[in-house]
Design brief:
19 strands, alpha/beta
Amino acid sequence: MRSKVQVGIALALLAASTAHADITASRQTAASKSARAGEAEFRELYRELIEINTTLSSGSCTDASNAMKERLSAAGYPESQLHVIVPPGRPKDGNLVALLPGTDPKLKPILLLAHIDVVEAKAEDWERDPFKLTEENGFFYARGASDDKAMAAIFADSMVRWGKQGYKPRRSIKLALTCGEETPNVFNGVQHLVKEHRELIDAAFALNEGGGGRYEASTGKYQYNGVQAGEKLYQDFTLEVTNPGGHSSRPTPDNAIGQMSRALDRIVKFQFPVEFNDTTRGYFRQYGAIVGGEMGKAMQAAANGDMDAVQRVQQDPSFNGTLRTTCVPTMVEGGHAPNALPQNVKANVNCRIFPGHAPEEIRQQLISAINEAGVKVSFQAPPEQASPPPPLTPEILGPIEKLTKEMFPGVPVLPAQASGGTDGRFMTPAGIPTYGVSGIFSDGATSNAHGLNERIRVQSLMEGREFLHRLVQMYAGGK
């Protein structure tokens, strides 16, 4: 009798567990279908944003901001919740800020941040028109296809859908599509908004570019979903040599181009020391376990201080950028006539500074490495404010891990530090912790952001669209 009762209880528990699992799976499937709805409309929004030229030289972020504002207005957002902010004297550098109000005024908003300006693109060097969206062999090609109009389009698309659906989040959702991330020393929209319109973008935290997933190019296997928590500090330095010059038939030992050439050569050969922090050490240990083989072992050993392993790992430019401060010459100009000694030569050296170091400290190290009295080293623009990485609290990381488990079973979430720079470096010091997360997976080598034939995998873009739509709703709550 007892055994029959036990069996009955066990069967009842199994049935209840199965029913709960079925309900959970059904809810997840419904959430996934809802987040994937309207793909055709998203493609059109993405195409429109891509095909509006937003380069500094000949484009207009204002045009792109107004185009996205029109879509939000058509989705039901009143004028009071839409702001195209054009800074004085910069008519083409407009930024869009939009608001979907929450029902709980005690909760600070979440900010969706993406830049809509793009790097210059010489059409004659590209295989396709960089300002026309082209789909080939499972990839979208265009300038900005990945950096950063992918996230900008995803965020704008979600805001449009929430407006049409009448979604009422508990936590307000703000959208900021900004201009100038790629040319911050000329103008930066985030800096302008923080300084002049803080109330419009103020938030508990922001989601931004900089994170993303990695898949293995040869197999397509998903390796990890990355969350950027912290980044290097961006700083340009100007190197300058001046000289009396003279006739080219009477050369002198202190030729300005020669001095600059020696200085740049020493910078190219100079390496800053290897450094780790908790984020990068954890990244190498966890990613090394995923990579496996000799390289994986080297990554794990490097994280434990093995300098022989560091020597191997740093051969990969991406890993090298994670390991240390890097400085590299990017531009040179000088001379005034082919038959005259150069009187002035300038060069730009771009540095990505490992967290914890002040720009002045790096300037002094460059002066020491150059070791040329005639080479002046100065800041190209005032140094940016450094800040500690934003904390990856359970409130931030938990939803990312939960959703990653649902959408990409077995794929771990890895915290990472960006080797490049994003607008998060302005937001976090201003008191708005900013995290890079997208759910967009790439192979880490062929997106060609900033380069020729920039591209993004169509599947990855659509997965990122679903991931971010669901993630924001997990943070914002409501219905």
